[in-house]
Specification:
The protein contains four helices and five strands. By secondary structure, the protein is α+β, with helices and mostly antiparallel strands.
Length: 176
């Protein structure tokens, strides 16, 4: 019984520690499933189930069988949490977040005109989603609504853009 109480207490301690310190991660370890939240689930389920079943029918079969059953249930619950919650959340996070500096060099559309020396708004596509952001012309010149621009650099939350201006070319005289 003491073993199960210790496992339950350590598991609850892991939960409280993770809550207070934020997401702990052991990146240096080779085990990708060795995460504090999964360890906590294993410990809480194993300890809690051991306390509940101690003295019951399974306990009559032997302490080793009880521990094996409780540990198996703990592993199964941690595996389910990993497969059904953690992996989908990681996939969702990886597809919806981006680094603003990774947008340098991409094309954007001006959706709110950028006045001379002022701010406007641009819209660009990141991973299939449209994002709008405040923008300022790199050279301070105005940029019209609907114009395509290139993101040159990012400062704070402001994108500095350069419009695709056409350069007038003098016609070459035709030799007669």
């Amino acid at each position: 019984m003491t073993l199960y109480m210790v496992l339950l207490g350590v598991g609850i301690g892991f939960v409280i520690l993770s809550f207070l310190l934020g997401d702990l991660d052991f990146d240096g370890l080779a085990f990708h499933f060795f995460r504090p939240n999964l360890v906590a689930v294993f410990l809480v389920v194993t300890g809690g189930l051991g306390i509940l079943l101690h003295g019951g029918t399974i306990y009559a079969l032997g302490a080793i069988i009880l521990f094996a059953f409780c540990a198996s249930c703990g592993i199964a619950m941690a595996a389910l949490l990993h497969r059904l919650v953690i992996i989908p959340l990681q996939k969702a996070q990886n597809t919806s977040t981006f680094n603003m500096h990774d947008t340098i060099g991409i094309k954007a559309e001006v959706i709110s005109p950028i006045p001379q020396g002022g701010y406007g708004k641009i819209r660009y596509n990141v991973s299939g989603s449209f994002v709008t952001s405040p923008a300022k012309s790199e050279d301070g010149n105005p940029v019209k609504n609907g114009e395509t621009v290139e993101i040159i650099y990012v400062e704070g939350n402001t994108y500095f853009v350069r419009g695709e201006r056409t350069v007038a070319v003098e016609p070459v005289p035709h030799p007669n």
